[in-house]
Amino acid sequence: WFGPLVLVGLGILALIAWFVVRPRLAPADHPFVLRAPPLPDAMSNAQQRRRWLAEHGSVWSVATLDKAVLIGLLGVIFGSILPQVDAPPLELLLWSSVLVVANAALALRRIRGGYISSTVAGALAFRLLINVPLAVVSSVVASGTTTIADAVFLAVLFSVIITAYDIHRPVYEWRMRHASATT
User: Fold this and answer.
1) Distant-in-sequence, close-in-space partners of 29: CB < 8 Å, separation ≥ 6
2) Of 25, 99, 105, 132, which is most buried, counting CB atoms within 10 Å of its CB?
3) Residue 65 to residue 101: CA distance in whole angstroms
4) Contact, 162 vs 126, CB < 8 A?
5) Tens-place pLDDT, residues 120-167
6) Which of 148, 63, 134 has its CA nearest to residue 98?
């Protein structure tokens, strides 16, 4: 009896959403599309994105806070899934926040110094050179709350996510600045 009751409840919620909520919504800003818009001409290559980040980037920014929260939540989720990780969630949040801030500071220093790689593989290798040793050291210092293999796994996962985030964040910020300037 429970399954049909849930289906009836979901049907009622769908009808309320369609006939009560949907008519009261503001019209859509743009039509539904599955393809991302093309990159703006001012942000179409890695050099332009690096230049923009060198001018507008900051270690203590909304982007760093955004990354710290994202990586911290993923750390807590994966920390609860991996069987050998015994670190409490707060410790995982703090560790991942230190990792994000260290990455932001070193990447911004390299960008402003002109030493950053123009390829994704180079940027990922740079992140791995920072994060894997930090993970190994923190695993040893944390007195056995996680294994070195799990710490390295988390560091590699975080490196991939931080690299992808740092590649796409300047385009997002450029679009937000220019969208607010045109309205």
Assistant:
1) none
2) 99
3) 9
4) no
5) 888 888 889 988 998 888 777 765 667 788 888 888 999 999 888 888
6) 134
